[in-house]
Design goal:
heterodimer, A: D-Maltodextrin-Binding Protein, domain 2, 4 domains, 6-stranded mixed β-sheet, 20 helices, 12 strands, B: disordered N terminus
């Protein structure tokens, strides 16, 4: 039978599609090549990140243009990848050997990230100890780069690799955003109160007001994502004084193992008044959120705020510009610090120990890939972005907090300056192990929505914790042992480097090796063994706490004072 | 045509490890967690020189520490070969230390035989007492004595380590670590003044090299000395000095708030005690 036109076409569809696709890809590559290297440009640097928030891409474009004015032969191309796919994307890029020159680090599990640091990224420690040339003419001229950071560049240091692997460009902070106009309209006040009781009182007032359609306003819009901020910044810090009873190793914090030992030996229980205070405050807060908030996503909570149906929302600087953008032309957004329980609060004031401590740690971190053909230029661009002037400008455009010291902030961001002295939560009931974690989360979810009281939570959790916790503490101890091989593994590799090195480098590597062997192997169990001895021998619940002055200790102090006075020293 | 095109588009960047000699390449693969490649590298080095202790040692380490797929029996055989065939080599001491580590780190569900661990570390020390591995073995041995039971032989540890530090120049290898262990031993023995002395000595004996950038974070050291001085030795002057160092040198540290609280507590306690403490005052 004579083939018809249609059958001929059908028979060639596949090769034709392949040929057309090939032609299209060839054409695309041909037409994009000039973009990659336009006339006069010798070097193109690719930088990738997942920050699709308002301002970030504009800031990179602006900084790239500024950099190109100084270095006309360099062109910076940014690739902004959605957060949800960034991990997979960067993984395939790095594994394929075609990764960008500069990458924002993160969005993969931490153990995977450590592997990426080792395989695909350049260590930067040498450069962080050198002055940043773009700081010439400022107070940071000649100052080691990392010392120009608010956090001394701690955010870029990777303990496991023992190197600075990334350069932070911003700092993040969390505060309360509020709708100024709506707040005034509903409360008659200009600014929200900063004391907890006053804040709850205005929230209660807002709850009684209705919009033009007769629906009640929500004082605070929240979601499962947001609840942690309110708890961490207002209620959980009331547990700080637990440190005086349970910080057995005196490291200035209460670990989940220490808390369990304190509870198991009868030194603490969930009836401890600061724990009750935390949950009392949290109850009052949760009552101000919209119904069903635990089932909502972060975006749904933001939507309620943008729709002017709620007055307050707690979120971070990363959302600041986006919130402003959504509110533009509709309402004014104000920023306030979290209200604090005051020492004279009749119900919870006894648990007040101080304002919340906020660790100043650099974020929005970038590393240089090993496949970068011009690592010196990539480093130079990072220096440009993390210079006093560059970092200030970049963060001004984005609306974030600069990572470099003594830089100017947008006025709105002044409320985000971290509080560097204060207290933190000391009741890690949920971190001991898997089963207690799940039980705690289940009960907390019920508490959040008001289905159970703290006493009911305690009644259900405490016996479970004290029983299951025994196995979980034992598992923690086994995990400590399981982790030792990683240190042995790392140290064997490090030792081999030291054995192969020569000259000054050899001396330095051996010295570093001994420091690592000492901290990671020799002294790693000293504090833990004391805690476990207390646990195994049984701790007298009435014995003095780690920060208490016993009569014997006071006698020692008295003797020291006496000796000093006899020597003619000043008595304070 | 398509294949030619794809090949032409391919990445021609030279892998940065291509020019390394086999042993260096094998260690590099080991550090990257490529244990199969590391094993092959060490085997190929061994094929080139069947008596190379470095290749034998590398194979031992790879079989000991690769995960998954470790083979401790095979690892021990390689280490023992190094010790038997090359007893004077550097690798012999490190192999003995690795054998001790195998005993010290059994699977988490099996108990540690602390007596056997003690003897294994002693074997490293006896083999070549001047080798760095012997010093490390001594520290690990004494640390295991201190942490391996609820009633550690603290006096025995203190005697052994006091002997070690008395024979070494200050700031030499592992002297600082020895003082840290002595601090713990003295705390267990109820000797807080001695413990504080060793904590200070540990800090002062930290090794350093001329021209090396000192980026040591001392915030923990200061905090530990200060709290030991305040809450165990009752030596408020020393406590005050080190809290102040923490506050001045690490002003953004989480512990600054507590340090300031502790300074206030000490001032209050001293005020309360000062009348009693005057010569002739109440005991």
């Amino acid at each position: 039978m004579k083939p018809t036109f249609l059958s001929v076409v059908k028979g060639y569809v596949a090769p034709v599609v392949v040929a057309l696709t090939f032609a299209w890809s060839a054409l695309s590559i041909y037409t994009h090549r000039p973009d990659k290297a336009p006339p006069g440009v010798d070097i193109t640097l690719r930088i990738c990140h997942w920050q699709l928030e308002t301002g970030v891409r504009d800031a990179f474009n602006e900084m790239a243009a500024d950099y190109q004015k100084l270095h006309p032969n360099v062109r910076i191309v940014q690739e902004a990848i959605p957060e949800s796919t960034y991990g997979q994307w960067i993984t395939t890029q790095l594994m394929g050997g075609v990764g960008p020159d500069l990458v924002e680090v993160g969005k993969v599990p931490y153990n995977v990230l450590l592997g990426y640091y080792n395989r695909y990224m350049m260590p930067l420690s040498t450069y962080t100890a050198q002055p940043n040339p773009y700081n010439a003419g400022t107070e940071f001229e000649g100052v080691p780069w990392r010392k120009t950071y608010k956090d001394a560049m701690r955010g870029g240091y990777v303990e496991e690799v023992q190197e600075y692997m990334a350069i932070p460009l911003s700092q993040f902070g969390i505060r309360i955003f509020y709708n100024r106009g709506l707040f005034k309209q509903l409360t008659g006040m200009d600014t929200p109160p900063q004391d907890f009781r006053g804040f709850i009182a205005v929230c209660e007032k807002i709850k009684t007001r209705r919009d033009p359609e007769g629906r009640f306003y929500t004082p605070i819009t929240a979601s499962k994502y947001h609840i942690g901020y309110w708890d961490a910044y207002i209620s959980d810090i009331l547990t700080f004084n637990t440190i005086h009873r349970a910080d057995f190793n005196r490291d200035g914090a209460v670990g989940s193992d220490e808390l369990f030992v304190a509870c198991k030996t009868g030194r603490l229980d969930m009836g401890y008044e600061p724990f009750r205070a935390r949950f009392g405050v949290l109850r009052l807060l949760c009552d101000q959120f919209q119904p069903g908030f635990t089932g909502l996503s972060r975006d749904e909570a933001v939507f309620l705020f943008a729709q002017q149906k709620a007055v307050f929302i707690a979120t971070g600087t990363w959302d600041a510009s986006s919130l402003m953008e959504q509110a533009r032309g509709t309402f004014d957004v104000g920023v306030m610090n979290f209200p604090a329980v005051e020492p004279d609060d009749p119900e919870f004031g006894f648990a007040y120990a101080g304002p919340r401590y906020e660790r100043p740690e650099g974020a929005f971190k970038f590393g240089i890939t090993r496949t970068c053909e011009h690592p010196e230029v990539a480093l130079d661009f990072l220096r440009f972005l993390a210079s006093k002037q560059g970092n200030e400008k970049m963060n001004q455009v984005i609306g974030w907090i600069p990572a470099i010291r003594d830089t100017e902030l947008r006025p709105m961001l002044r409320a985000f300056e971290p509080n560097l002295e204060g207290v933190f939560s000391c009741d890690p009931f949920q971190n001991l192990g898997g089963e207690t974690f799940i039980r705690w989360e289940q009960l907390m979810a019920l508490f959040h929505v008001g289905q159970i009281t703290y006493d009911q939570l305690r009644k259900q959790y405490e016996p479970f914790y004290l029983t299951k916790g025994v196995n979980e503490l034992a598992e923690n101890q086994r995990n400590r042992r399981r982790g030792v091989f990683r240190d042995d593994q790392f140290l064997a590799g490090f030792r081999a480097r030291a054995m192969a090195a020569t000259g000054d480098e050899r001396e330095q590597l051996w010295l570093k090796y001994r420091q690592l062997a000492s901290s990671r192997l020799v002294t790693r169990d000293l504090a833990n063994s004391r805690l476990m001895a207390l646990y195994n021998k049984g701790l007298n619940p009435d014995s003095p706490g780690p920060y208490e002055m016993t009569p014997e200790l006071l006698e020692r102090v008295r003797q020291h004072l006496k000796q000093k006075l006899e020597r003619g020293g000043p008595a304070r | 045509m398509l294949a030619v095109w794809l090949v032409a588009c391919g990445d021609r960047t030279e892998h940065p490890t291509q020019k390394l000699v086999p042993l260096e390449q094998a260690w590099r693969d080991y550090r990257l967690g490529e244990y199969r490649l590391a094993q092959r590298g060490f085997e190929s080095a061994l094929a080139q020189n069947p008596h190379d202790p470095a290749a034998l040692y590398g194979l031992g380490i790879t079989w000991q520490l690769r995960r998954p797929g470790e083979d401790l029996r095979k690892a021990s055989e390689y280490f023992e070969r190094v010790v038997t065939d090359h007893p004077d080599s550097d690798e012999a001491s490190w192999s003995l230390l690795a054998l001790a580590r195998i005993l010290h780190t059994p699977p988490a569900d099996r108990p540690i035989d602390h007596d056997a661990v003690y003897l294994a570390y002693q074997r490293v020390i006896d083999h070549n007492p001047d080798h760095p591995a012997a010093d490390e073995a001594l520290m690990l041995q004494q640390a295991d004595l201190l942490t391996g039971s609820d009633n550690p032989p603290a006096q025995q540890v203190a005697d052994r380590l006091n002997q070690f530090v008395s024979q070494r120049p200050p700031n030499s290898r592992f002297v600082s670590t020895a003082h840290t262990l002595l601090t713990q031993a003295c705390r267990l023995l109820g000797q807080p003044d001695e413990a504080l002395k060793h904590a200070l000595a540990s800090m002062n004996a930290q090794e350093s090299l001329p021209g090396m950038v000192d980026d040591t974070d001392r915030s923990w050291t200061y905090w530990n000395i200060a709290t030991l001085a305040q809450y165990e030795a009752g030596n408020f002057d020393t406590a005050r000095e080190y809290y102040q160092k923490l506050i001045d040198e690490y002003p953004t540290d989480q512990k600054v708030f507590l340090a300031k609280q502790n300074l206030l507590t000490m001032a209050r306690v001293e005020r309360e005690l000062s009348s009693d403490a005057r010569p002739g005052g109440a005991p």
